[in-house]
Amino acid sequence: MRITRTVAGRSRRAAVLVTTGLTASALLLTGCSSDSDSSDTSSDANGKITLTVADFGQFGYKEAGLFAKYHELNPNITVKEDTTAEEKNYYPKLLQQLSAGSGLADVQGIEVGRVKELADTKADQFADLSKVIDVNEWVSWKEKQATTKDGKVIGAGTDIGPMSLCYNTELFRKAGLPTDRKDVAAKIAGGWEDYLKLGEEYKKKAPAGTYFMDSASAMYNAVVSSNAKQYYDESGRPVYKDSASVKQGWDLSAEAADKKLTQGLAQFGDPWKAALRKSTMATVACPAWMAGQISIAAGDANKGKWDITTAPGETAANWGGSFLGVPTAGKHVAEASKLVKWLTAPEQQAAVFKAIGSFPSNKGAYDLPDVKNAKLPYFNDAPIGQIYADEAKSIPETVLGPKDAVIKDTISTQINNMEQRGTSPDKAWKAATEAIDKAIG
Predict the structure, then answer these.
(1) Residue 248 has what DSSP assignment?
(2) Calpha distance 399→221 (Å, rounded)
(3) Which of 127, 183, 238, 420 has an alpha carbon within 20 to 30 A of 275's alpha carbon?
């Protein structure tokens, strides 16, 4: 399932209830697909073609019925999906296949934390999708992430992760805090510093055995994600040691750990899921895909106890997102490119959003009813279509680097050590920088 994708210190996604009335337990049935026959890309005697799509976690195409629909529209084409549960296992295999020039699917999924590395080092092995798609259809910063210096586009944007804040209204009420989403937004309007102040208010009257947030590392990623410059500068030089956004995120995380505002749980593990089920955490930094994680882990018993409001501060943030690329080694590059164009068109992105909650990167989807009018029944009917679309349009263009994912993962690990082991901020930072320098050279 795509919910096990672990890049940049996070798992990736689960099915999110949107305009349908599905329950979290029903969504567990969506599972992950694993059509593993990725070698059959040849035409048969009747001119019929099988296209393979290799991806990771849960892209939502099967759940939305899109492969079957594409076959109805194109009877000579059958699409098969080969899904790897975790991106950390998928990406090394993709690199090996690119190096060998064989074993590749007709369409390959690409995680945002990897796209810069592929654009810099493997662009010649991907078809130029700028000749197929209109990049202006996407939010401005999305397609730039997959564009080389000479203008080649190696991937069409699928989803993005605009930021919000999920909070447990029952715990807020018991702690004497406001529960209306507009009132909560006002309390954190000044930014993540205000978020920590709200955490201190919560702690004063918090129900026994509960914590303000799940993880300081999650807050760290949310803070950094709201800045254009994160780990690299425009020249491609790693600047994470001097990055203002990294410093802000690290300092706030250290403060949260020191003040015991966090339960110190690595996200998406069994203890984290149990904490949601038992309602021991009051807030979770919430990119669009996170709501589904919460609803499934917390279960039906907690439906209606959660709500969603805008993220702290005035700066929009994005956490996550993927692309679809077409390897030039494929036997059906033209047909695969047409499939990618269709899968990433507004109507199909809206269908995926309705099916699993992956928020579209194609702006044309935002005015479609399944996106514009989307609400989450589990989260007190939070108007997520409006919340996420408003944020998506104002997210700053991020400077990506080839090893963004490695840097994020390593820093997140050390923040977890501050929370769980009591490691001092200085020692944790030293360990993080030494590991990163060794990894990126």
Answers:
(1) H
(2) 15
(3) 183
